[in-house]
Write a structure and sequence with these properties.
Distance between the termini: 57 Å
Strand order of the largest sheet: 26-27-28-31-29-30
Largest sheet: 6 strands, mixed
Bound molecules: flavin-adenine dinucleotide
Number of helices: 21
CATH superfamily of one domain: PurM-like C-terminal domain
CATH class of one domain: Alpha Beta
Strand content: 15-25%
Length: 757
């Protein structure tokens, strides 16, 4: 009897909006205890979500970027969540849709908002033009480096530099201590009081740290004054101008840089979308963390306020809400009774005071010193570690014991995590073997270029017109159907451009996992919207297609294009003396493999997706204008495999400059960890055609030769005298990493096909 594959149908969609502290717990909980049938989508502005508690340590130079950011990509992956990077500013609550600027709306059954807050000084006139808010933190961090450099340079020239910080709470105080420490230290100044760096704190209150006990307030003030920090009390800021703070009824205060770290506020769009808010504009929730207006919308962290239990805006509260939120979302999704959560009344605050010291404040308690910093450091880093050091992805191999020997079983186990995208192609060794044994019908109008198998079939329509056809299909290499379809479509069009043709129309084949009808409808809609977006950009009609229900998401296209015969580009035709130009950096295979193992950083993947979305249209046009003698696109068989298809060993060989190969961010890191695509080992058979591998095997870029590319760049063989102009044109058209990677040489009668230099 035929065995039936079983998959769990998706029946509901949970959208987590914002990658804040509470949603970290929700993702972790759902990763550990998946709710079968629930699809999770995380939409967030920052894929590396900043942890503000560690910001002062970063400013003081103790931590680096990755120490203070949680990478949401591996975490989302572990929870099986689709990760979408978007900044949202609108909700359609009636139709349960999140409105996106860059892509079609995303429908939800349950929505949870954990979008943090912004300093309320954002609303003061001139704030965005003339001052820098401490949040969004990544905007602040991007500006901080500039400020620090300007200040250090000024001090080194013997000039003064001033920083004014608006706000009298812990964030301002920490910023004052840490920025003073960092700048003076970098300028080689040991004593703050003898520095020409002036730090000013401006607050509308008559004291600092108004929500803390007297000992905390007194100590902070004394400590700042002893470091010559100027304190301006009862100064309500009315406006910001260039290098000037205008205060109500008082003199203005000047500074080279103005920061603000004032009380919290949230943007207006949640209220404008119809969510109930409290007097201060925060999303009003009940003790179940459900919004008062929409039971299927939850909210937490700084952006929300629990009715009857207002609390200061602090990450501690957001963290504490995480688990109750996760459990209530699950209860809501499964029709169970929700449980109330009342936030604790007081939270411990650990505040950095520079010089690796900190103070602790809770109720009437106050402690200070190096040990408090060590304590804070441990708490912060333990928190980060929980989300950074994720358990390894286990490869499960279901094989009855005794069917194969232990060694074979071990090899199969190592390869049990199978790649998708171009890493899921059948290896060229198997493919060539099968194809060469087929006895196929021949037609006179099918154009063949000698023994070379081209990227597309060529059918002669008339003396002036050739039909160019390609077909390709992928198992999804990312779980976001829209982005997946965009990349897959761009990849499929690449074969047409590699032939020098213009795409005309396409037929699609879509495989959609079994799910509730509305979910299948959404998945297919997202898939097709992504596909059509890209086809439309290329003036290519979607002429039809087929869909089927499958165990996993998959998508492919048959693309038709046309070209005049004299315009066609071919793989064959390398001329001795040509240089080889590669348009895009390499590494998608190893990156996608790392992504599956939760080892790829979010920013690497975002940058890789951007590369995969760059069309080959302009590159093909550029190669044609620069009289390229041959062209192909680098895809599943990797650079070496595709290059070998271009070389006719009877008359040419290639010298490949390994060190010049352009590479995507993070790729060498993944290769050094020996993370390879499942197609890599088959592609590595191309090594047999490389003349001098021994001397180069240990070089980090060596393995790149065999890395399968999804939507990889075109490789063109361009006459030497055209190379400079060709590269200039490519770069002007967005192929920033295009470069010459080698040249075609006479093989002098030897069998060598590729020599590394
Ligand atoms: C300098 C400084 C130091 C601090 N130190 C501490 C401390 O030591 N301890 C402490 O407890 N608190 C501290 N805080 C307060 C703390 O930063 C906040 O209370 C906490 O970050 C709030 O967490 P959250 O989960 O609500 O949101 P956040 O952690 O701010 O996360 C918000 C998330 O939502 C995303 N997002 C925002 N808007 C959108 C949108 N429109 N569309 C999509 N995604 C969006 C963001 O990308 C981010 O992922 C400090 C604050 C500052 C400024």
């Amino acid at each position: 009897m035929m065995k039936t594959a079983v998959s769990t149908p998706i029946v509901k969609r949970l959208v987590l909006l914002g990658g804040g502290h509470s949603h970290l717990s929700v993702l972790m909980h759902l990763a550990r205890k998946p709710l079968d049938g629930l699809e999770i989508v995380l939409i967030t502005r920052d894929v590396h979500t900043p942890y503000s508690g560690a910001l002062p340590g970063f400013i003081a130079g103790i931590y680096d970027h990755d120490d203070i950011h949680i990478d949401l990509r591996p975490l989302a992956h572990m929870a099986g969540a689709v990760l979408i990077q978007e900044e949202i500013s609108n909700l359609d609550l009636e139709n349960k849709r999140v409105i996106c600027a860059k892509r079609p709306p995303i429908r939800f059954d349950i929505l949870s908002l954990n979008i943090g807050s912004l300093p309320d000084a954002t609303k003061i006139p001139g704030a965005t033009e003339f001052a820098i808010g401490v949040k969004p933190m990544d905007v602040f961090l991007a500006r901080w480096d500039e400020v620090k450099n300007s200040a250090v340079q000024a001090l080194k020239r013997g000039e003064s530099y001033s920083i004014a910080i608006v706000g009298g709470g812990p964030a301002s105080v920490e910023l004052a201590f840490s920025s003073q420490h960092a700048i003076n230290w970098a300028a080689g100044i040991k004593k703050h009081t003898s520095s020409r760096l002036q730090i000013k704190i401006i607050t509308a209150d008559s004291q600092l740290m108004k929500f803390h006990n007297k000992r905390v307030k007194d100590f902070t003030r004394r400590e700042l004054e002893s470091r010559a920090v100027e304190l301006y009390f009862d100064h309500r800021v009315e406006a910001f101008q260039a290098n000037t703070i205008i205060c109500e009824g008082l003199q203005s205060i000047s500074a080279d840089t103005i920061f603000y770290a004032t009380g919290a506020s949230i943007p207006q769009w949640p209220a404008q979308s119809g969510l109930a808010t409290n007097d201060q504009g925060f999303i009003a929730v009940n003790t179940f963390l459900q919004t008062l207006s929409h039971p299927y919308v939850f909210a937490c962290g700084d952006a929300a306020s629990t009715e009857g239990h207002p609390r200061p805006k602090s990450g501690v509260y957001a963290v504490r809400q995480g688990m109750p939120l996760a459990k209530n979302i699950i209860r809501f999704a499964t029709g169970k009774k929700l449980k109330p959560f009342v936030p604790q009344k007081n939270a411990l605050a650990l505040i950095y005071t520079g010089d690796r010291k900190a103070i602790a404040s809770k109720n009437k308690r106050f402690f200070k010193g190096r040990w408090v910093w060590a304590w804070k450091h441990k708490i912060d880093m333990d928190f980060m570690k929980k989300y950074r050091e994720l358990p390894p992805v286990k490869s499960t191999l279901k094989l009855a014991s005794g069917l194969v020997d232990k060694e074979t079983e071990e090899t199969l186990k190592q390869h049990a995590i199978r790649c998708a995208g171009c890493g899921a192609k059948v290896g060229s060794s198997i493919l060539n073997n099968v194809i060469s044994n087929l006895d196929t019908v021949k037609h006179d109008d099918i154009v063949v270029s000698g023994s070379v198998i081209e990227d597309a079939s060529l059918i002669k329509i008339s003396a002036k017109r050739t039909l160019v056809q390609t077909v390709d299909y992928f198992r999804a290499f990312i779980n976001d159907p829209w982005l997946f379809a965009r990349i897959a479509t761009n990849h499929c069009l690449g074969d047409i451009y590699a032939m020098g043709a213009q795409p005309h129309s396409a037929l699609a084949i879509a495989s959609v996992p079994f799910a509730a009808q509305k979910i299948m409808h959404e998945t297919l809609s997202e898939l097709m919207a992504g596909c059509v977006d890209v086809l439309n950009e290329h003036d290519t009609a979607l002429a039809g297609g087929h869909s089927n229900e499958a165990l996993e998401l998959g998508f492919g296209l048959n693309v038709n294009g046309f070209a005049r015969p004299d315009q066609l580009l071919s793989k064959s035709g390398l001329m001795v003396g040509d240089e080889l130009i590669l348009c895009k950096p390499l590494g998608t295979g190893t990156l996608l493999a790392a992504d599956m193992r939760l080892k790829a950083k979010g920013r690497w993947m975002l940058a890789a997706f951007d590369q995969m979305l760059i069309s080959s249209r302009e590159a093909a046009e550029c190669f044609r204008q620069h009289q390229a003698n041959a062209c192909t696109d680098i895809t599943g068989f990797g650079l070496a495999g595709h290059l070998l298809e271009m070389i006719n060993p009877d008359n040419a060989a290639v010298e490949l400059n390994l060190g010049s190969l352009p590479v995507m961010d993070g790729v060498l890191d993944c290769i050094s960890q020996k993370i390879f695509s499942s197609l890599h080992s088959d592609n590595s058979l191309a090594m047999n055609s490389i003349y001098n591998t021994e001397a180069f095997r240990k070089q980090p870029r060596f393995e790149l030769l065999f890395d399968p590319q999804t939507a990889g760049g075109l490789l063109g063989s361009v006459p030497a005298e055209q190379v400079q102009s060709c590269l200039q044109t490519l770069k002007a058209n967005g192929y920033a990493q295009a470069c010459s990677i080698g040249r075609v040489v006479d093989n002098n009668g030897s069998n060598a096909q590729i020599a590394l230099i």
